[in-house]
Design brief:
single chain; 6-stranded parallel sheet; Undecaprenyl pyrophosphate synthetase; alpha/beta
């Protein structure tokens, strides 16, 4: 069991229900230190575990990490292979979260992943299904556009089967057929490393999210930095199109 975490978030701060994190800057972190990019990915994978526990201590109910996008297959093969090896290794270790009452979910197209990885993902999901202290979501081979296509295909099939008509299609129906299903929309999207773009992450789910950017590279992102993002979130005026 992990040691208790002491947070320093000022009292009275509203904690986002769902935080999305784009884990960016692993390769640059390694390059700055004269190391192979895969070392940066290894350090980034370690850090996601630490930030998950810190988020839980803060009271975050859902946290989604962008681990591997549908576009990341374009990277050098040795880097992709190293990332996939990391996934398998850390999926064994992510079981530690089960002891902490954390539910684990995976979103994305699993068809391109190895059979071993898919089995491990399914096993962790099933074993943590009833846990409710927090939900950890890992986006692997995920893309926001692919997510919406996935939903549309399901809805079109329902129409072909005669279960629905065109007028039955609503925003709620689209949401219910996304990979995220019952997961609420994102409140806050955090992107370290200095880049300021969404990069095909939770496109539908972040329609009214607040965005927080920092120049800190992901392996150096700490619990205090997460608190800074939440403080900035509390300074925003979320009007959802109103006045």
């Amino acid at each position: 069991m992990a040691k208790p975490i002491k947070t320093t978030l000022p009292p009275g701060m509203a904690v986002p229900v769902h935080i999305g994190v784009i884990m960016d800057g692993n390769g640059r972190w390694a390059k700055k230190r004269g190391m192979p990019r895969k070392v940066g990915h290894r350090e980034g994978a370690k850090n996601f575990r630490a930030i998950t526990r810190y988020a839980k201590a803060l009271g975050v109910k859902y946290i989604t990490f962008y681990a591997f996008s549908t576009e990341n297959w374009k990277r050098p093969q040795d880097e992709v292979d190293a990332i996939m090896e990391l996934f398998e290794k850390y999926l064994d270790e992510v079981r530690d979260f089960i002891e902490e009452n954390i539910r684990v979910r995976f979103i994305g197209d699993r068809s391109m992943l190895s059979e071993t990885l898919q089995k491990k993902m399914k096993s962790v999901e099933e074993d943590s299904l009833d846990f409710d202290s927090m939900t950890l979501v890992l986006a692997i081979n995920y893309g926001g556009r692919d997510d919406i296509c996935h939903s549309v295909k399901n809805i079109v099939q329902m129409a072909i089967d005669g279960k629905i008509k065109a007028d039955d299609v609503t925003e709620d129906m689209i949401e219910q057929n996304l990979y995220t299903e019952e997961i609420p929309a994102a409140d806050l999207i955090i992107r370290p490393s200095g880049e300021q773009r969404l990069s095909n992450f939770l496109i539908w789910q972040s329609a009214y999210a607040e965005f927080y950017y920092t120049n800190i590279l992901w392996p150096d992102f700490r619990g205090k930095d997460l608190e800074d993002a939440i403080i900035a979130f509390n300074e925003r005026n979320r009007r959802y199109g109103g006045v």
